[in-house]
Amino acid sequence: MDMVRDILDKQVIDREQVKIGKVDGLVAELRPGKPPRIVAIELGSIALARRLGARPGGWMAKLSARLGGKRHGEPHRIAWNKVREIGIDIEFDIDVRETTIFDWQNWLRDHLVGRIPGAG
Amino acid sequence: MKKVLEISLGVVTSVGGFLEVGSLTTAVQAGAAFHFQLIWAIVLGTICIIFLVEMAGRFAAVSHHTIADGIRERFGFNAFLWPLLAVLLVNLLVMSAEIGGVAIALELATGIGFQWWALLVALLAWVFLWKGTFGFIEKGVSILGLVTLCFVVGAVMLKPDWGQVAAGAIPTVPNHDAANYWFMAVSILGASISPYLFMFYSSGAIEDRWDESYLGTNRAIAAMGMSFGGTISVSVLIVAALVLAPHGIDQVDDYHQLPLILIPIFGFWGFVLFIASLGIACFGAVLEVGLQQAYLLAQGFGWTWGEDQKPRDNPGFSTVYTAALFLSALPIAAGLDPLKLTIFSMALTAASLPLSVIPFLFLMNDKRYVGKHRNGMVSNAAVIFVIALGFMLAIVAIPLQIFGGT
To answer: Which of B105, B195, B283, B398 is the most exposed place for a label (fewest CB within 10 A)?
Structure first.
């Protein structure tokens, strides 16, 4: 399987089928004498910005850390051994509510969307 | 029976949703300035959008991806950024123009200047998106949009020389105002082939959970819906040519001239029909483009999306359309002439099409996505031809228009 072609940029869902992002980056482990092995995927704006270059990646990491605190200074990672199914989407055996991936959406809900009448 | 109902509903939706500020004003201007001579541009644009809409539906039904999902996955994030930014920008301008169209309709109806209506229109559209469901928006607004069929009735009542109409469907070189002629051809192509139209359609097919059993339905909806839509645009052009030219109006550069075109046919009701057509058609487009902005970002970045979920459960998605609506209302509220903005954004749409359409064509020829339902030679050739023509005309005609070739 060509991981970069087949996994990178795929839609990621959690075990409740919630769309939580795309595979924005791959983390591989280099092994002497053997092909590299995928150990995790990365999601979020820092991983995306890094694909544009080291400098945009650095800026985005600083910006995220300033907005969201230290724990948002690194890309979100999901370990590859949590993979459940690879189809149209790629499903991981996690619950997005137990991660920090949706912190920004939760912030929007608590501070903006939820305060507007009729948000349900 | 269920399929027949589905097809007719789909056709009604496409017909009601076809006409918007771009196709309406470009057709009026073209008819006034060049009689039937630019009908070919509407015909070419309509053929191209039939193919693109059919492809968008087929892609969603077979691959279960929206177009944005597909482009990002196939070409990677860095390549996806270009069509993403191009479509976001063009959509922003088009949405401003559509808000302007509704605002003009309100000005014509009430006498209160269009800029005062812009934010109100955005607010009303926002309420629809905030509270409405996909089916309600898609079908409800489009059924009201059938009022635009009054242009077809008007065109027939004027008894045009149908031989001349048919002759206009063949491209010819103008004998006056060449720069203006080609610029109008570009704007008409851009107005007919809006990226938001086929991208919205693919999102709709996913929201309605289409599978391969829908391929026939999809083909029928695309062919009939878009042909009827094109017929409305041609009718607007015919009406403008036959009504405005005898009154010595060959240049429509003031939107106050627009409602005149139906008055000789329907009297006072012509005025009312025109305002209703303009207002409803543009309002429908505001909703569609607003949703499309949110779809595009959500699909591109993999957030939850869907118009049927409550804003609370979908904060990223609902924030995007909220921001998009109010951002687009600002230029109109600041008093920017909606007519000029419309013509400019339509030409820019034509110029930007290769960025969104070419990656999409790659997907439509990729077995991994559409398997045996890949594009044939004809659909590839037709779309490439029209997109290339629009792009080449655009890069020549836009500078000429801006820097005064005439």
So the answer is: B398
